[in-house]
Amino acid sequence: MLNRGLQFALLTVAHALVGVWLAAGNIPVVGAENADAKQDAYRSPIAVVVSPDGKTAYVSDRTAGNVTVLDIAGKKKLGEVALHGQPRGLALSADGKRLYVAEHGAGTVAVIDTSASSVASRFDVGRWPTAVAIAENAKRLLVCNQDRHSVTVIDLAQGKTIGEIPVRREPSSVVFTPDERFAIVTNLLPHGVGDDPQLAAEVSILDNAKLAVAASVKLPLGSTAVYGACVSPDGKLAYVVHPLGRFNLPITQLERGWVNTFALSVIDIAQGTRPVTVLLDDLTQGAADPYAVVCSRDGSRLWISHAGVHSISQIDIGLVHRLLAGDVPAELAALKDGSQPNIWMRIKEDPQQVVELENDLTALYIAGAIRRFASGGNGPRGIALTPDEQQLLVTNYFSGSLAVLDAANGKVVETISLGAQPQTNDVRRGEQIFHDATHAFQHWHSCATCHPNEGRVDGLRWDFLGDGIGNAKDTMNLLWLHKTEPLNRRATIASAKACTEGGLKFTNMLVPTAAQVDDLYAYLTSLTPVPSYHLTVDGKLTETAARGQVLFEGKAGCARCHPAPIFTDNLMHNVGVLSANEPDERYNTPSLVEAYRTAPYLHDGRALTIKDVLTTHNEDGHHGKAKGLTPQEIDDLVDYVLSL
Prior knowledge:
- This protein is of the alpha+beta class.
- Among the domains are: 426-525, Cytochrome c-like domain (Cytochrome Bc1 Complex, Chain D, domain 2, Orthogonal Bundle); 543-641, Cytochrome Bc1 Complex, Chain D, domain 2.
- It has eleven helices and 35 strands.
- The longest helix has 21 residues, at 2-22.
- It is globular.
């Protein structure tokens, strides 16, 4: 499962790097003359917003821990504002005077006074805020809490939190409709058991008057790693970009989207439905890892960043809607799909055929509805249009720069550096490989495609070939590969180094160089655990978790197979859950470190929660002595495991 665990690992390296430079204290605002004061930190831009006059860009820099201020016309850096944690999502007030920044890991949203280039105040939110959005008329700020699976509602006029709305799983982006009646929230990962054949991530539609979820819209089965969304100017539709994993099939080949494709889903906001999903790939090459999407003011065009293939797609979404309505031009109608009419004509004749767009790699291309161009750097993430819509701004994460593209033709107009980059070491090079789909056959996925949750899990299960066909396994966390050998659920891989090389060879299906394997291995083995949000603010066990620790180490007998500090004995055991083709029921003991973020559980993901592992799927009492515990003791034990 290397390729699926790799993305989560990559982002965790960023966490580790952040911790080093945060320890040095706050970074002062600097001018252009000393903008490179933090030469020990990589520059990794992740989000961008533009001032109302179109002159200034504000960019969140994840690893340098600041917001960088750039002069677009002058093509230069103006300064930077030091922040806490890992700066992520941005939202700029309509007058450009206040910039709101999600400080992931710090549990706060920073409010920057843009005229003074300083932090004016902060709001306390979940520990892992990822995205923010402003409702100007309602004077509200929405904050996605990745840790609490919720959206915090802040009244900006009163300067206080007025509600928290539970959503599905790890909200990653949020955007208001123009009338502010609804907000669209993307949930990064699926929430469900691994053997659900319809398992997919969902989009939450929030009712801003009721402070509640109005509808949850499921994306096509296998959808995960859902980052970006935007809303049409009329407020009727939301556009969401995401991978679409073919997890119900064995991984025997990559070509033509056999394993992964990448999609644009259209959400009808009022109806709470998904009328259509179209693929962004072409027939022989994947459009790996779509990250952000923006819409033109007239609703006719979309721009999408593809982090895995360093490109931008421009979609003639107006044409797509006309085709879906049956308005097919004569020249397109004349094209055949073999001996039958092409997909657009089939939809015109039978609207129920629209579902076939989820599997059609050529639909947008034969219609002339998609163009792709280079992003101007490596690893594009956030994108934004200038107010005149003449230019598209692109944050290129690994290049440490903002590219200014001609929005019409995709030509790179200018590249603006966020600051001097230190020389790349093996860990940073490995991080780039982890996120780069050009290291896979026909660019069909990167390691990060399958590990979107910062190098950990995608919430799906996959039928890899290392242990035969017909026995799909839950995606594993890549944390501490070198400390949990042998690897995979059946312990068929002897070492982390072999797992690293095998992932590139047999999952990405390209032959890597020895240097590439070494770099990726360096990155993976650099990953460190992120403290659980189930701990107290000062990093200690809660009262219930402390009772659970006593049970874990004593009466429940869990520590026999899950001894600290790695919380695995690295041995095979019968845990009482039978899978086809594996009659011995023996599986490699997984580490419980970061169990709080790696659901679903057991080798095939059949258990949605840790409590399910200890109760529903423990009829024969194979999980220590948990079967003999009281309901309260089970709850205490679960709290402890989720704190690891």
